[in-house]
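Hey,

Quick one before I head out. I ran the complex with NG1 overnight. Inputs first:
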Amino acid sequence: MSDLANRFATQFGPPGPAYLISAPGRVNLIGEHIDYAGLPVLPVAVQRQVRVLVRPRADRTVRVANCDPAFPPRTFAITNDIDPFPVGDWGNYIKAAVQHVEQRYGPIGGFDALVDSALPVAAGLSSSSALVIATGLTALAVSRRDAPALELAEGLALAEQYVGTRGGGMDQAISLGAREGAAAKIEFAPLHLTYVPVPHEWRFVVASSLVAAEKSGAVQEAYNNRRRDVESALALLVGDVVRWPGIESYRDVVSLPAVEIDAAISSIADETLRRRFRHVVREGARVLAAEQAMRRSDLEAFGELMCASHVSLRDDFEVSRAELNEMVDIAMEAGAAGARLTGAGFGGCIVALSDRGTAPDVVTALRKRYYASRSVPDDLDNLLFVTEPSGGASVSAL
Ligand code: NG1
């Protein structure tokens, strides 16, 4: 913290910061690419966070600096309708959150902020949403305003679409609403979190493929295309009121009896849309089964569901890559109960589940078989770690 305070002083001069805001990243255990279909997901917050030191300003200017030199300082004025920086600029996450808080809870005051992130960027651990949540809390804190957590998470999820990705609401909800020691089953519209204690013996190993899934260029387009496919597939059923009366959402589809769900899948003639649809409805069912498996501490069942999720993301949803498949195989061969890509895919991380005794074997196998032949820093701490389910975002007055 004193390091960070020194950097703040170097960047902005006296007086010192008034608040420390932190917001965690997340690893999604199961339920991938279905939050934007309105189906429940099951993530945990990781103990790695975005931290922001903040000092209010008397005017309506925002100045932000980042400890990572890849992200240069940015300055802008608060208005009700803020023009974005060029696509891909990190400052757009700040603008997204500030504009939302101004529109919904404003008028708000300006601030100077120093951002420090312990989350790997573009790794599928949601560093971007952690930054958006931290900035939303910053804008509220400097303006001495408050907002209900779920309302804020829902609002900031929509607000993040300012950057150009039509994301769902999972990341913001878990970053704000997480509880230590628990996963959260997140339901949408309305947003609701149900906490599921993670059994003490379970360990989740998170490992980066080293392939950046930077959601500013091609990956943003691929992500938005998947979402469009998911919407187009549903529209086919909704348009067919004779065969599918009463079907208006994916929630309606997953509440049908199993044979009718199978019939709905087969009714989609377009091969790609059929596969996207199949992934969404089956993944939705896996999340509910996984919640039950976690509640009865059934490691094997939870692991099998994770593996099935990976296969579906690989074959039906087509968001995996050779590197992620290789890592999943390595984890399974080392004794993991289950493993899958986590987050949007196209690169990023895998998550593997094992018991306490086996987790070190999984870590060692990934180290030897995946990282040893690639160029990586000596300290793999940021790329390969066992995560503790952590608490959500916080604001401390200094
Ligand atoms: P990540 O892994 O942070 O790119 C994205 C979306 C989520 C969700 C997952 C896939 C954003 C901010 N997040 O997460 O809403 O759809 O992909 O399950 O776009």
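Residues 271-295 form the longest helix (25 residues).

Talk tomorrow,
K.
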